[in-house]
Amino acid sequence: MPAFAACGNRLPRLDETQQTLLRRAVKDFQGRTPPIAETTACTLLEEECNAAEVAAPKITTFRRALRAEDPVLRALKTGGMRAYQATAARSDPRLRSGAASGFLHTVHIDSSKRDVRASPELKRLIDQRRALKDDTGRGYDSFYIAVDESSDSVVGHAFVVGPSRIEGVALLMREIVHRHGALPRAIVDDRGPDNQSRWLKQFALSRGITLLDTMSGGSRSNSQAENRIGQVNARVCQRLPGSTLPDKAGRSVDGKFKSLMTARLEFLQLCGLIEAFLYEDLPHIPNAQGETPQQRKEAAVERLGMLGIPCLFDDALLFATSPRWTGGFVANEKRGIRLGNHDFTSLEVRTALRINTPLELRLDAADPSVLHVIINGQRLRAFHGKVQQRAALSASERLWLRLVEPAIQAANRDQKTQVERKLSQRMERARAAADAHTHLHPSATRMPVKFRPSKIRQRHAGQSCGMTPLRRCVDGPARASAFC
């Protein structure tokens, strides 16, 4: 059947009043928050037309008017800038910026939840901390990844217990320097709070790094890092015990198959499996042209060399990649520096604290036993009392302690609060019971003492004890009883 609306008919079938009401209904439909269904909007249009005593347009006419409008405008009005960026069409390839040609010149970074949960012991610990809970009220872990733009190879990674935060970005910068001896000249990231932090901006400014922010809702702008994260979750995390894939199915999957019931692997075991996949398997997966990331990396280095910013893995880098301590502290020469429930000290720090005070404190991002301090312009390090005990641990184990320490402290505070609450309630019941039985107090049942001044005087008068004779008690019984 032909479309009669497009074959010769130029006069509209709707009068001016109907067109006005139709445009108003379309505008109202695009701007409704929360959005409404098309049938609901058509019903409202019909009510307005009946009030104006005109025939209401059919739903096909209403849908045709909607298709004539820009869908991006509706996404902007109903979902904000994030929905607008996700709905926007792809740009013209002729107007896009070209990819980097040298290795480590431009790096894409991103973070995501890990689609596998660790052992129940870790979850029991993390679940007690509200800051580490997701929408379902259960703890989860995150990981960061850095991908080189020229070769599409992974140049660094970092693991974080709980949501994404500044420590993850700092550990990622350390990992890049540790593996390649250089920092990227440009970093492409999204607009997450950890990537928009003041620390990252200051670090990039001091190291000469350019930060390029992509759209929050346009994952294709940071597709290289997004694709690698998807491969890690699909090929590693979702194939292990404790996978969160059954959780996403909702009530269609039995509870015994959910991640909290099937989690068996420890945190460090999961980190080792993901790390092996990133640096042993991914470099040898070919793309559509048959080139592997390892081959593209070698070709880029042979052609242009390493284009990153040379950087040494020294104390200056460790200090720069440690987030600043913003909480309270106590510092003196005798005990060193106290942060919360932990004391940090060293010979150099105690000597400097004799006449000066700390200007800046930074707790190391990977080792919970090290505290970086600036005193009188000098960069010093203070150590925890368990530094020798933790020195026997591996770097991954020390990182694990550093990441899980906030959860341990929060769990300890909650447990101490519960114990103190029970103790206070028990003491309050004891005091209430004592007030209710005042008639049983010993002072209430003791017979009152009656003094007899005459007999006291007679008894003392008849005694010869070598002391001064007792004079007449003119002050009454109280004076007399003092000599008894």
UniProtKB/TrEMBL annotation:
One of its GO terms (biological process) is DNA integration. Residues 116-301 form the Integrase catalytic domain. PROSITE patterns: INTEGRASE. GO terms for molecular function: nucleic acid binding. InterPro entries: Integrase_cat-core (IPR001584), RNaseH-like_sf (IPR012337), RNaseH_sf (IPR036397). This is Transposase. It comes from mine drainage metagenome. The lineage of its organism: unclassified sequences, metagenomes, ecological metagenomes.
